[in-house]
Give the backbone structure.
Amino acid sequence: MKKISLILSAALMTVLIITSRGGTYNTGETYDEVTIGKQVWMASNLNVDKFRNGDPIAEAKTNSEWKKACDEGKPAWCFYKNETANGIKYGRLYNWYAVNDPRQIGPDGWHVATDEDWKTLENYLGGNFIAGPNLRSQEWDAIGGSSNSSGFSALPGGTRFNISQFLYIGRNGYWWTSSSINNKSAICRQISDADTFVLSKILNKKNGFSVRCVKD
């Protein structure tokens, strides 16, 4: 445990200067932006209900609506447990079909983070085994602490899992990447309160996860 603590402390000390500023985009939403290394990330989860061109993204308020959209490979979003208050704090949860739609879910000049974008971020913060505390918002009570030294301000927004189950709000956060594996699965990231890891997972595209964008 002492060795892990020393490694973590070293990683926190080597995080370089970040900058943060606000921006309002074509979607009408306002986001803080944070520079981490050579990347510029949104400092909060995506919270839009329309694509870049103005077309609406369907809200799935029921399990049947979510299942229908996913079975047909169509974009959908929801709030955790369909409660608007959760969306205000954590942003919307999207299926992967919203992430990958050619109309683009991110505003002009931005894209949904790829697997490689996440790897670059993790490596800059010392590697995926210890990057979690640097990414977690300070209000996130978790093993290894939550320094948010990167300014990424990750929050445990939970997931819509297996169509009908809302799980892990206040404990885990899940973020889609735009990187697909096959017709059923894509790569995502998980940050938990139980360790310091940023886990790369391959999960079903029908799950509802948060989304972060990176500047092109």
Notes: Helices lie at 2-13, 63-71, 84-90, 96-99, 115-124, 132-135. The chain has a mean pLDDT of 89.
